[in-house]
Amino acid sequence: MRDRNFFPVLTELELQLPMYLTSAGGWINQERTDRPDGFFSFQWIQCLRGQGRLELGGAAADVGEGQGMLLYAGVPHRYYAVQEPWSVVWVTFHGSVVPEMLERLRLKESGVYTVSEPESLLEQLDRAAEVMSGSDPLRGYEGSALLYRLLLDLAKRSSFKAGGSRQQHLQSIAPMLRLIEERYADDLSLDDLAGSLGVTPQYACALFRRSFGMRPFEYVTKHRLRRAKELLLADFSLAVAEVGRRVGYGHTSYFIKLFKQQEGMTPSQFRQLFLG
């Protein structure tokens, strides 16, 4: 690795994109940086080797391999090496939807995040630097797409403070998800779902809510209705009652009511919408 930093020429059209990269690069040995007024862009700075320290809001946290700093625009901070060389790569970014998107992705705070499988993010950071250093006059558009994927990956793979990443949370309930996939049409109980994990029903619910923000049987319902929509369009001659039975609803009236609650239309109306 060598020191590098790239800044795009952002046209007025690119500045109107929902999000866009403002720089990308890396340092072999990150110098001490003091920003009492914060920085004008949002930043993701990922550690390659060595160790640094971030001071933020009166607290300090170390940043080592497999970790990075997410820094909101305008937030005062300071960071410096404590074990040299402290090698880092980064992107800075902005855009009208960035604050809301970070909130929705649960990347709600400036601070140090731990990343599972950091190589995936590093590949995207390298690609961002490659795009920013190129000569394509439309590289701002590609940079915007790269940034979107990077933030999604960060949300999936990172954890803040003591919490695990979403990817790790999903791995913890993988047997439950497989059971739902295989037996969604059966009369599953919470005990069945908890048994797939070897935990209590209460803890199974807690694990599921942590991963998806909903109860297990809300997910079962969504999975059943997804299959129902596929069946409705796979065979137009298949009766609505039979579709409901195949996805786990023996009472046709309840199936139709639930489908309308979730989809805003009855199964027949859904099918007609696609038939034209």
From TrEMBL:
SUPFAM superfamilies, A to Z: Homeodomain-like (SSF46689), Regulatory protein AraC (SSF51215)
Chain ranges of the HTH araC/xylS-type domain: 174-273
InterPro entries in the record: AraC-bd, AraC_XylS_family_regulators, Homeodomain-like_sf, HTH-like, HTH_AraC, HTH_AraC-typ_CS, Tscrpt_reg_AraC-type_HTH
A single GO molecular function term of this UniProt record: sequence-specific DNA binding
Swiss-Prot/TrEMBL keywords: Activator, DNA-binding, Transcription, Transcription regulation
Alphabetical list of Gene3D superfamilies matching this protein: Homeodomain-like (1.10.10.60), Regulatory protein AraC (2.60.120.280)
Keyword Lyase part of the UniProt annotation: no
Coiled coil: none
PANTHER family hit by this protein: ARAC SUBFAMILY, HTH-TYPE TRANSCRIPTIONAL ACTIVATOR RHAS-RELATED
Entry protein name: AraC family transcriptional regulator
Organism: Paenibacillus antri
